[in-house]
Amino acid sequence: MTSIKKFQVTFDCAEPERLARFWCEVLGYVMPPPPSGFDTWDAYKRAQPAEQRDAWSACVDPTGEGPRLYFQRVPEGKVVKNRVHLDVRVGTGLVGAERLAALEAERARLEPLGAVHVQTLYDGDDACIPMLDIEGNEFCID
Predict the structure, then answer these.
(1) What is the largest CA-CA distance in the chain?
(2) Minimal CA–CA distance to 42: which of 61, 57, 62?
């Protein structure tokens, strides 16, 4: 029998900490504690060589159930559509107008954080709202 593995989702980005904080707000995640031997993240950053400061960040599910999200700074910007994206599940079990209302409420919550509404897909029963995060990565409210 195969065992279930833990995994993390890694994002290439320009501003790791800023993007990590955005996703903390979206998902209800938290920033992990600083590495062992450091009281704060600022103390950890000051101990790093200048070229390594702000090179990465992460956020975690406070319940320990969801995957860790890891953000790593890369020099190049996003050029093409993501091959993988996150679906933020807020309408599970809902259909029709009730589902659309739940998804629209989440869209309205995320836009002031910097998320961009791409379109609303709705066929009368099912709905999905494609969005962009603060660095242009696609995700869906589902």
Answers:
(1) 55
(2) 57
The two three-digit tokens of residue 53, written as one number = 């400061």
Q: Give 77-111 pLDDT, tens digit per residue.
A: 888 888 899 999 999 999 999 999 999 999 999 99
Q: What are phi and psi of 139, to 5 degrees?
A: -150, 165
**Confidence bin at 74 (pLDDT 50/70/90):** very high
Strand pairing class (86-88; 116-117): unpaired
Read off the tokens for 40: 């704060």
pLDDT in tens, 106-128: 999 999 999 999 999 999 999 99
Query: Going from the N-terminus, what domains does the chain have, and what CATH number goes with each?
Result: 8-73 (3.30.720), 86-141 (no CATH)
